[in-house]
Write a structure and sequence with these properties.
The protein has one helix spanning 222-266, and strands at residues 4-7, 16-18, 29-34, 44-50, 60-71, 78-86, 111-117, 133-140, 149-154, 159-162, 165-166, 182-184, 187-189, 192-200, 208-221. The protein is an alpha+beta fold. The protein has a 7-stranded antiparallel beta sheet with strand order 2-5-14-7-8-10-11, with no helix packed on it. Strands 1, 3, 4, 6, 9 and 15 form a 6-stranded antiparallel beta sheet that branches. It is globular. GO terms for molecular function: unfolded protein binding.
Amino acid sequence: MPTQILFPPFHPHKSWRAVDDRIRGGSSVSHLDPLADSSSAGAVRFWGTLDTQTLGGAGFASQCHAFEHRLRLPKDEYAGLAITFSAPSAKQPAPHHPASTEKPRPVEPYEYTLTLKTSTPSLRPDGRRESTISYEHTFPLSGSLTAPTRLVIPWHAFEATYRGRPLPATDPKYIPLDPGSTTENGKTRGGIAEMSVMCRSAFGRQEGEFDLRLIRIEAVGDEERAWDLEAQGRGRRFRAVSWKALGLAAMLCVGLTVAVRFFDWRL
C-alpha cells in the first residue's frame, strides 16, 4: 500500500481546535496558523505558551483534529505514521546532575507529542472531556532543525496512556492500538478517531513559549517496511560474502607461507 498523505491540507481554522489545560483551570494556550511564507505548501505553525504555575507543575497545550469518518489504517497495510517538521530554533534541556538534591528547573519546551485516539471522548455536563485511552509518541528537538526533518513512527512506538500516565498491558482498562477499524454487531472498533499534536510540561520538566512548524503527516505504506527488510537482507548477504572472502584470503596466506618455508628448507 503506498504512503497516504493525511495532512496537508491542515485547514487549521476549520478542522483543528485547541484542547489546552484551560479546560481544567490552567492557563496554557495553543494556536495553529497557516505559514504563508513557508517554502512547503500547506505547512502550519503550532505555537503558544505552556504554563505550569497555575496547575502546580502540570500543564499542556494541544491542537486536535477529529476525523469526520474514522481513519482506517490496517497494520498489514501500513507500518506507522511519519511526521515532517521543523523548528525556528532547537532547544535542549540543561544538564542535571543525579547527585544533586536540587529539583531541576523547567526549561523552554523542546519535546512534542503526537497523540492518537481510537474513540471520541464524550463531554461531561460541565463541558470537560471524559478521560479515554490515548496512544502517544513523544519526540525531542535536538541539534539544528531549521531544515525539515522526517520522523517515521511505527505503530508499536505509540504508548498507551490514561490521564497522561503510561497504561500497562496488565491494567483492566488497557486496549492495544488498532489503527484499522472493524465493525461487529453494528459497532465500530479501532481505527483512528482523533489525532493531536501536543506540548506538555511532563510534570514540570518544561514550560514557556513553544513553536513548531508542521509540514506533513502521512501514513507510511508497508512498502517502506518491505524495503527495510530487503535492505537488511542485502546487508546479511553482504556480510556472509565478506566473511567467505576473508576466509579464502586467510587460507591463501597460510598456503603461501607454507610454500615459502618449504622452498627455503629445500635450498
